[in-house]
Amino acid sequence: MAEVPPPGSVIVADWHRCKESKEYFSKLLHKKRRKKFGLLESPVMPPHAAVDTVHYKIFLSGKSGVGKTALAARLAGLNIPNSHYETTGIETTVVYWPVKLRDSGRVLFFRLQLWDCGENALRRFDHLLPSCKEQVDAVLFLFSFTDRTSFDDLSNQIAKWTRPSVGQVVKVVVGTKFDLFMHCDVAERDVRGFQETWRLPLLQMGGEASDGLGDIAPLLNCLTEQLWHQDCVAAGSSRHHSQLDTVTVL
Ligand SMILES: Nc1nc2c(ncn2[C@@H]2O[C@H](COP(=O)(O)OP(=O)(O)OP(=O)(O)O)[C@@H](O)[C@H]2O)c(=O)[nH]1
Ligand SMILES: [Mg+2]
Q: Whose CA is nearest to atom 8 of ligand 1?
């Protein structure tokens, strides 16, 4: 398995808290709330501060009800569903996230297209998984802290994505429903044991979504850092990135 870069070694950690990042993060907000980007929309910087955008495809994996659709909504700043409505096919959601590279000081917008497919739909229709897997850059493996079986199944899921036929994909584990600690079914020592075995980043999610970016920043920073690292390793140079395109100034 590819080595995971230590947090903050590739991108500036907690950059969203720095004053100089305000100009970029403000493009994600409207009246202090998350801006909704339509299919053809993207953050627009003034000409003097135009930055490049890099595109990635992310697949959300996990049992039905663990919170894949809720996580996609949380990351995009959309309304989180209160009830569980099974996702009947593939839904995609786009999330923008600005990042500052540590070595060069260069700023990039990451455009993350999240692919969320209902687990039951995946099982019912064979053609869905190949579409989700096609040219995927990263997989978020979700388990719920309130559902032991979703945690026990993680190793199985990750192993499927670690075969040589799959190629290199960034892997991040997300434990959802961390706010429901009264119903917690996964002990801390089990989580530690899992991390020692797999050596993958594991982040916890849960609770009311805030209007700010603080609750999603750890996951998005971790994901973008690994995506960039994976590309640099693949290209053999930290300066080259084939997906670069300039943010269009409308
Ligand atoms: N309290 C709490 N509830 C959550 C959290 N994440 C998801 N939920 C709830 O869990 C339920 C199921 O979440 P979904 O996101 O619909 O589950 P899913 O993984 O998309 O399920 P399928 O589409 O059937 O595969 C919903 O009622 C969500 O509101 C969380 O972090 N905390
Ligand atoms: Mg769903």
A: 67
For residue 204, the tally of other CB atoms under 10 A from its CB is 16
- pLDDT at position 244 is 52
Q: Is residue 5 part of a domain?
A: no
- Please list, in sequence order, all residues whose beta carbon lies within 8 angstroms of the beta carbon of residue 239, skipping any fewer than 6 positions away: 104
Q: Separation of 149 CA from ligand 1 center, angstroms?
A: 15
Of the bound ligands, which one is closest to the alpha carbon of residue 181? 1
Q: Ligand 1: does its nearest atom lie under 6 Å from the Cβ of 153?
A: no
What is the pTM (predicted TM-score) of this model? 0.92
Ligand 1 atom at shortest distance from the alpha carbon of 62:
19
Which of 33-37, 43-47, 61-65, 240-244 reaches the highest mean pLDDT? 61-65
Q: Which domain holds residue 229?
A: 15-249
The rounded mean pLDDT for the chain is 91
Whether residue 1 is contained in a domain is answered as no
Task: Supply the residue whose CA is at minimum distance from atom 30 of ligand 1.
Answer: 177
Model pLDDT for residues 149-185, shown as the tens digit of each residue? 999 999 999 999 988 888 889 999 999 999 998 999 9
Whether 74 maps to a domain, the answer reads yes
Residue 6 lies in a domain: no
Residue 57, pLDDT > 80, answer: yes
CA dist 199 and 61 (Å) reads 18
- Going by pLDDT thresholds of 50, 70 and 90, the confidence category of residue 190 is very high
Q: How many domains does the chain have?
A: 1
82 lines ligand 1 (CB under 6 A): yes
CATH number at 187 reads 3.40.50.300
Q: How many CA atoms lie within 13 A of 208 on its CB side?
A: 3
